[in-house]
Amino acid sequence: MDDRAAKDIAARLIQARENHKPIDFLGGNNPPHNETEAYRIQFALHDLLAAKGDAPGGWKVAVPLPAQYQAIQLTGPAMGGLLKSRLVKSGTRFPAGSILKPGIECEVAVRMAIDAPASAGPYTQANILPLIGAVMPAIEVVDNRYADLAGLMGPGRIADDFLQHACVLGKEITDYRSIDFTMITGRSIHNGKEIASGPGTAVMGNPIAALAWLANKLISLGTNLKSGDIVMTGSVHAPQFLQGGGEVEVGFDEMGMVKASFG
């Protein structure tokens, strides 16, 4: 796949997002065949969005566990981009019709304070930790905007930022070294009922390990984490697609909760 082909697919993905129409990679629309092609499309998509004035805001880690990425024919965890315009505060309301099929994930988000260049890598939990400015509880809002999500394998999901729609960010915690991320438990509540929960260890054993993985992955793709980037380190539970609108509360007892509403 050359750059022109990647750009053409990226443009169609953006059009589908803007028109709120399902994306059908399985219907002859030239799906990426491997991870290399997928990231070429993803980066072309980011460039096109930036040219339209939608600046990048950071990155996300997806499918951090072998059982998750092997099920969709990937060789390891994956990553996607975040848009600055889609980084929103606790209490945000998502109007009915703004998302095709909304889902929520419970995550530890990170704000980078210092760049993570290739010259200082490879990165580990130990040497990525001092580069963090703050951590915060966060909701990743995902959108099942696909005609057949079950049949869409990993490369197709990578190309379109792995269902990313928005990130609802909670209160920043700068004293993050006091948190044992292996001992935290996150939970998601919809209209007063807990619908999912999971431990911090569900994210590569530790969300900070996922951050280090992302730093190294970006370097392998020719770029790097930068000061100010927001990173969603991965959900502690599987995406929960909402049955109807209402109120959502997501977070960790040790870090606080984040709220959003839908419909």
Helix-and-strand structural type: alpha+beta
List low-pLDDT spans.
none
The CATH topology comes to Fumarylacetoacetate hydrolase, domain 2
- Which sheet architecture does the biggest sheet show? 8 strands, mixed
- Overall radius of gyration: 17 Å
Strand content: 25-35%
| Known CATH architecture | Alpha-Beta Complex
Mean pLDDT: 95
Count of individual beta strands: 13
Distance between the termini: 40 Å
Shape: globular
CATH class: Alpha Beta
What number of domains? 1
- The CATH homologous superfamily name equals Fumarylacetoacetase-like, C-terminal domain
Q: Helicity range of the residues?
A: 10-25%
Order of helices and strands: HHEHEEEEHEHEEEHEEEE
**Number of helical segments?**
6
Notes on the structure:
The protein is an alpha+beta fold and 263 residues long. It has one domain (55-262): Fumarylacetoacetate hydrolase, domain 2 (Alpha-Beta Complex). Helix content is 24%, strand content 32%. It is built from six helices and 13 strands. The strands form two sheets. Strands 1, 2, 3, 5, 6, 7, 10 and 11 form an eight-stranded mixed β-sheet that branches. Strands 4-13-12-8-9 form a five-stranded mixed β-sheet, with no helix packed on it. A hairpin with a 2-residue loop joins β8 and β9. The protein is globular, with a radius of gyration of 17 Å. It starts with a helix and ends with a strand.
